[in-house]
Specification:
The protein has about 120 residues and is an all-alpha fold. It contains 5 helices and no strands. The radius of gyration is 16 Å and the shape is elongated.
């Protein structure tokens, strides 16, 4: 990686972290509002899961995924994401369509910078 590419990528990550995290958290919060309350106890989760419709189960799986990505952006690595990746592409994919046009432009710039560095 060239020094310019590192700086450019780092500055894009810094600019994207908060709006992408906000978009993912807002999506997760919207799902929490429509799903039955998720128990905090792992023993009760299977009962919670079985009590939902297939559509609710898909929404619950998406909620788990979004929560993991929010955690990753907050410093707690998500399953399937490299702990060294500050802005996983999957997080950007989940934020697509849920951000402003300016953030969408930053996402495009980050993807292009990341592709150049790969």
């Amino acid at each position: 990686m060239t020094p310019f590419a590192e700086t450019s990528t780092e500055s894009l990550v810094a600019a994207l972290r908060t709006p992408v995290l906000n978009a993912l958290c807002e999506r997760a919060d919207a799902l929490r509002r429509v799903l039955p309350a998720r128990p905090g106890d792992a023993v009760e989760r299977p009962v919670w899961w079985q009590g939902m419709t297939g559509d609710q189960q898909r929404q619950a799986a998406l909620l788990e995924h979004l929560d993991a990505l929010c955690g990753h952006l907050a410093g707690r690595p998500a399953p399937g994401c490299s702990p060294d990746d500050p802005m996983p592409l999957v997080a950007l994919e989940e934020a697509d369509g849920f951000t402003s046009a300016a953030v969408a432009d930053l996402i495009s710039a980050y993807r292009a910078a990341r592709a150049r560095c790969a």
